[in-house]
Every structure is written in C-alpha cells, then in structure tokens.
Fold each of these.
Amino acid sequence: MPDQQKNTETVAPPKIEAHNIDLMRSESESLFHVNDFTVHGKGLVLIHGENGCGKSSLFNIISGVFAPDAKHLRFNENGRFNCDKSKPGYLFYPNFIFPGTVRENIVCGRKISNTQYQELETVLQLPPADKQVTIKPENLSLGEKQKIYLARTLLGNSSCILLDEPGSNLDEKTEHSLINYLLKLKEKKLILVISHNAYYDAVADKTYEIRKGMMYQVQSR
Ligand SMILES: Nc1ncnc2c1ncn2[C@@H]1O[C@H](COP(=O)(O)OP(=O)(O)OP(=O)(O)O)[C@@H](O)[C@H]1O
Ligand SMILES: [Mg+2]
C-alpha cells in the first residue's frame, strides 16, 4: 500500500477503561485502587499525584510496557481493564539519544513530512536539525534532550499520546508554546498528560488524581 494511503487510513478511536482494579507494586501490595477510569476518543486528560503514587506505572500499563498480569494488576469483583488503542506515542523515562543528527534522533526512520517537522521545530524551538549529537561527551543540555524526546513522541500518526512530565527541563516559553500546540492536537487525538504543573489544568478536559491509594476524577468540563 502506498505510504500516503497508509497515513490517511482511519484508525478506530482509542478507548481506555478500567473498573474496580488495583495497580500493584508487587503481587501482594496495591499501589492504588481504580474504581472507574474511562477515557476515549479525543481530548486532554490530566493525571495528578504525589511522587511515587504510581502515575508512570499507569502509563506503563496503558502503553503495554507492563503486561496486564498479576504482578501489575489485581482484578477485584467484576474488575476489568480494556485498552483499545493503536500503538500510542509514549514520552517515558529514562529516554535515549543516539549518535546521529538531531533530525535523525527525532524522525527515527519514520516517514515524516518537512511541514510536520518544521511545525514542531517552531513549537519546541528544537536544536538545529543537522546538529550532530554525540554521546560521550553529551553535547545536548537536559532541556534540548527533552525537546528531542517530545518531538519524537508527538510526530507520527498515533491516535493516542502519553506524555509523562512533558515540561521537564523546558523553559517557561517553550512549555507555554507546547501547551498551545496540545490545545490544537487534542481536537484530533487522545492525549494523557502526567504533570505537577498547574498550567495544564486550564486545558484539561478531564483531571484524575491519585491520592492515598485511590484514583478518582476531580474535575470535568
Ligand atoms: N521497575 C520497578 N520495579 C520496582 N518498583 C518500581 C519500579 N518502577 C517503579 N517502582 C515503584 O513503584 C512506585 C510507583 O512508581 P511510579 O514511577 O509509578 O511513581 P510516579 O507517581 O510516577 O512518581 P513520580 O512523580 O516521582 O514520577 C514507587 O514506589 C516505585 O518505587
Ligand atoms: Mg513518574
């Protein structure tokens, strides 16, 4: 099938639902209980919670990095977990760069148009596309690396995007620019964001909080 045709193929809208389950720290210890977590279609869903409460573990389950087995999930009475999505874009840690240009690090062999690349170049103020990235010594700052990870995650045609602390190491101007971009993107895609930053509250369609071993919805628009 020609690539152009592949890119315009309609993908079923993503749907993630969890009812009466626990995310597990180990087979016997719960990280937190989920009574009802249902997100689907498009929009921006924000996840809040203190350090160590299990936010990244939730994304590892949703993305498929963790198997939905007894080590990671406990199904209580009528408990269920369904994750109906194409392969999501996932901004995770620790992440990686490899020797090559900035553009190669972002595109990672995919077919990405110049227009798509240039849009993110502007939004994220990316380092020069032809800059050679080296590993030892690393010639990128933490913020520059974060921009590369973000651009890599945001490019592509996945209908679901998981962003774990997207603003880490970004300056305020870039984070605002990213939020404006997400505001447009959420009209087309389902975006789940983990953030401690209050900036995202204003653009979230749904917010969930994990507190004292429970996940619950705190606000809906
Ligand atoms: N690979 C792992 N093996 C064992 N325990 C882990 C692993 N990853 C995380 N944990 C533990 O699971 C708990 C939840 O970790 P998680 O990374 O999901 O928290 P978080 O809410 O994302 O925290 P933060 O805000 O600091 O990123 C922590 O107590 C952590 O020590
Ligand atoms: Mg985390």
Amino acid sequence: MMVIIFMALIISILVLIPLFMTIPVTFASDDTIDVLIGKNLREVTVSGVDLQRKLYASKNVWLLSKKIKNELNQNVKAIRFKCHGGNRSNRAKGRQSGALAKGKQNILALITSPSKILTWNRERYKGDFLVIGTNKQGRCDLVNRVSIEHYISVILPKEMHASWPIEALKAQAVASRSYAFYKMRSRVRGFQENENITFFDIENSERHQVSGSLLDETSNTASAAKNTAGEVLSFKGKKFVPIYFHAKCGGSTLLPEDVWEKGANDKNTLGYHRVDCPFCQGKGVEIWKLELNKKDFYPLVSQILKSKGTTKRVAKGVAGTSGVDFSPDKMRPDNINIKIITNKIDSTSVDFILQNRKKHTTHLFSVKKSFIRKYWGYDKVYSNRFIIENGDGRGNNNKLTLKGSGKGHGVGLCQMGALELAKRGWSYSQILKYYFPEHVIVNYSQL
Ligand SMILES: [Zn+2]
C-alpha cells in the first residue's frame, strides 16, 4: 500500500528535448552563484515539494504523455528529464536529439520549489536547478543556482573542517568568496551562439572549489559565512582579483607565476608574495614520496621540450655538472643523455641538461615543477615543493624518487597554517594579512 501511495506521489514527467534551440540566458544576480554539480548526465531526476519547471525550449519540446502534461501544475514531487531524447520510432522520423555544435550549450529548463530545497542524486540542495544541454550527444549538465552566502557555508566543511576554529573558517570564507566572485565576474555570459559561454560560474570539484549539499552546513560554518558576509579581498582597488588557497604550503607559499604560465602576465594576480610559513609544519603528511622509473621520465622530457611556454632553454654548452644522471647506454639509443642538476626544495623549477653524445652538444633547460606535477597528476605529486633523488633508496638506480612537502599548489592562503594561527589566537583578518600582505578586505558592494 505504501508503495502504491509513494508511486502515486511520484509524478515523473518525461521530456524529450532536442538540443537545437537558441534562447537568451537568465543571468544570476550578484548574490547568487551557479554551481555545476552534475556533468554528462544521461538523465536528471529531481525531487522536492510542489516542483515547478520552466522549459526554455517550448517549440521543440516533445512531451511523452499528454496525461502527465495535464498534471503539470499539481502536486509534483519529481521531475525526470531524459537527456538522450528520442525513442526508436521518433528517431526513425528524424526527430532525434542531436549534439550541439562544439563548445555550445543551452539552458533546457529551470526547476524550482517554493521550499527552495531540491533533491538530486540523494543529496539535498538549496536554491534552484538549471538543466543544461551540452555539446555531448544526449547528455545534460546540472547547475545549482544558490545564494553566495549559502554556497560559502557549505563549501567550508569541504575545504577545511567544520570543527576548525571559527577564525580559520572565516579566513577561508573570505578567500572562497573572493575566488567565487572572481569566477562570477570573469564568466562569459550572453547567448548560446557565443562559443565561449558557460552556464555556470564554478565547478563543484577540486578544479575550482569543492562544494557540498545542504547537509554539509553546520552552525559553525554558517556563522563563519554570516560574520564575513559580502567580504572579499581586493588589491589596490582592482575590482575582482583571483584569491588562491591550498591545503598546506610545506614551508613557504608560492607566487601565481611560479605555478601557472599566465600568472606572470596576468595583472589580476599582482600583489602576491612568497610568505614563509612554519605554521603548517607537523600538520598532515610531513614528507611525501613518489618513485618513478627513469625511463618514464623520457616521455615527460619530450613533452617539456614541446611545450614552449613552460620550458626555458637557459644555456648552451654546460658540461661536467653533477646531478641525477640517466644511464645513456641503457636508456637512450639515440645518444641523448639527460641529467637533472637543480635539486632545491625551494626552487620552483627543475633544471636539467640534455647532452647529445653524437653531436657533442649540451643544452641546459629549466621546467616549472608545476609542469611535472600536472604531468604525473595532482594525486601523485602532492605539491610543487619537491626534490628529485637518484635511485629508490634501496639500490635500484633505474628509479628516481620525488620527495616533497606540502599539499596543493602552494599559492595564497595555507589552510593548515591558518588552522595553527587561529589556534594561537589570530583573527581572520590578521591571518589573511599574513598570507596576502598587499590585499585588503572590502565588501563586494563597494567594488
Ligand atoms: Zn604553510
């Protein structure tokens, strides 16, 4: 009986939507942010109380069932979108959904509830949902449009820990809000004909910020957001600057240009300093190690040589320098020998020489550690602060070992350092001043 009642309550609306339409975009206002929470979905089922949906594709929408269509304004508990529109007979008539042209996306629907609480994938979210048609055939993305302050309060437990001291959480709240505003302001908004347009400000992922669902909010994180509401870091009156943070610097923070190629030419990233940080010591993993086969280094070197922006050819004719050597006879049939010569933990790049034994030439190259980190993966090379050692420490010289400290890119706020400083009684504004000496806290409404 319960099952029947439950089934009766769940009214699924199947909508088959071809992805060919052109519609204006709905803009998020200053105090809401669009967060990408689901990617490449085959279908989207949203549940909630008295759900309403606005379709943006009226003339192309093909409703599967008239009966369901008539029930649209009733007590709708669930809405289901099939992103892979078109059944077999439909396809036979040539009405299948098609992929949008490369780089193009499209809002298909807005789903709202008067309660402002929606459930997707067994997680509850505040705000509204946007279903986005993507350029991948038959796939949708799901975007959560939510107030910026709620967004901040649910990302804090993911970025830090809800039980951390309130001043550390407040420092993170200001950093996260600054980052979010920068992403909101630099997003290309407009019509779908613009190939660069995206329908979200920020991704719920390690790539941007890791956000959570409604249940992740605690009174501690909510008050950290509330007590810093609207506050962002700004640099010399510049409207929106990217503010970066990471888990643990491991001894000293880095500059944006130490890590990202565009950093050096990006006026927005001015004002960063390398800051000594002994505060994160003893927190989390102290030393991480990664063993690699030397022969696995060769494809990386080929990549390095191809990537012009990353690699600097710094000198010619360097000889007799000691360093981590690769056996040329076993490893390189083409008579090229590679020797890594810079091995300082504080250095943001690795220098190596290429010796061509046949042509008797030697060149010195320099590559950013961040390039090496990206190549092997952020889950293997935890930070941009490492040295490269010969062998595996057990006598196997066909291997080399990356040994480092810290976790994350190392730019801006060191979260473990902020934790320690908050424990020592520093306020969030003192913590931010330490890691961002030239940036000032302002309310974004002043910008
Ligand atoms: Zn640190």
Amino acid sequence: MEWESRTASGVTLGADNCITQSQKLKGLRLCLDKADDWDFDVFELEKEADGYPLQVLTWHVFQKHNLIDEFNLDRIKLINFLRQVEAGHMENPYHNATHVADVVQSMHCILSKGGLRKFVSRMEVLAGLLAACIHDFEHRGFNNDFLIKTQDDWAIDSNDKSPNESHHLASAWKILRNPEANFIHRMPHAQQVQLRKLVIDMVLATDMAEHMAIVSRLKTDLQKVQHQHLENLIRGLQGAIKIADIGHLYAAHHVHVKWSERLEEEMWLQGDVEKARNMKVSFLMDRDKPGVTKSQPGLAISCLS
Ligand SMILES: [Zn+2]
C-alpha cells in the first residue's frame, strides 16, 4: 500500500475532486522526493501533507529503508500507530508534529548518508527512525526544569529523571498495547526487546542535561572508528538523534530563522506561566527581555564545535 495513494487524513474524495487531488499528490510526491536532502524544508511538507507531516514522512522513510517488509511490520497497524503518535502532539510553537517530522527526516539523512551508515544494523535503522518519531510525544512546551520545580505529574512519575523524555517514551510505547496499533506484533520477542532498548537509550539521550556527558563519551569513541559491539554504537546513535533534534541549525536560513522564532515564542510562553505563578522567570524566557533569537548564534557555535 502506497501512503501517497490515500489522502493524508484517510478521506476518500469524489470524482469532481480528482484533478485537485491529483495535483495535491503530485506536490506531495515532489516534496517527498526531496526528503533525502540535508536542507529539506519541512514547512513545505507540512503544507503538502495537509497538516499530517509526521505520519506521511515517517511512512515514507520506513518504505525507503524497506523496513516494513524486512521486519514484517503490520502495515495497517503501523498507519494506526503513526496516526495516534501525530494526534498526540500539541500545537506548541516549537515542539509540535512538524518539528518531529523534521527530526525524523534528519535522522533518515544521518542514517543513510552520514558516516554512521557504515556501522548501523537494520535494527538500528528501524530503532533510530522510531525513536525520532516518538521523541517528543505529548510535549506540552515546558522544559524539565519547570516540570521538576512545579512538581508536575511527569516529574513525580519519573522521580525527576528526564520527566519530559520519560513521558514521551512511556506514553508512546503504550500505544503499542492497543492491538490495532501494535505494528511489531509479528516481530520475534527478542527483536522487540532489542528495539525497545535502543529506542529508550536514544530518546533519553535527547535530554539536554545529558548533553555534555554524551558528547564527551562520543568524542572518545570517535577516535576508535570500528563497529565492534552495540555499547559503542549506541553512543553514535545517541549523538545522531541529538544532531537530528537540532537539525534546523543546518537547514536553509529562512527555515532556521522560523524555527528559532518558534522556539523563542515557546520559551516566552513558559516564562508567562512562570510569571503568573510568581516563579523566577527562567533564562531567556522573559518576553520583556532579549530572547533566544539573540542567543542562537552562540548556541549554534557551541553545538557545532
Ligand atoms: Zn525534539
């Protein structure tokens, strides 16, 4: 089944709409053809995919890597899973389904064109794309520090250990409990266990609190460039998802500026909530002061160095 042969929303259109529909699918196909490019414009995909960029892009790259046939994934249940993942994203300025589609696309590029491609197994490709797809599931636009300070349920449930990332992982994985969305049900148990471990290790690595530790271990590993066992490679995969997560730093300038402005607005929204709760406003989150767009060049330099 080709995803592009359906409308993104699953609505069947009448004959009168055939020409429009055909033009829309052509636009979507042209856009997806560019999904192998580092400087992919995810906002173009958002428009062409009728507001369903996450499920359309993830399905496309799963097909592209032949993961559905190779792992005998259940196509209908995968579609149901992806729909539920996309529906679980709030319309935050930054942490929304379009950002996640962007991260999936960046992960696809890293795994198929980056230096890591020589070392990764097929299971690691599947895990990398799945981790990217769920890595911000149900994000509410607040950072971990805020969740911990306010004793939010997500902080309590995770004992203050990466409250956001722990929630994204656990609640997305629970989707698989629904038999209609359990697309890996035919996968041998040992493979399911391996997949889950890889996805957990990658999504938890997106917590910026782990940034310095991961980068430092990765720098050491990169001096020994042989794929010998999983423990070393997982660090490479953690580095990959972290790079994909800030992939807009190497996007076209106008795309990068748009994401930076959205990040700034989301941070200011958290600052508004902090002010309303009489909390100290977090760094860069006060809309009455210069925001992240003034600091982004510094962030880019520190991330890329
Ligand atoms: Zn993210």
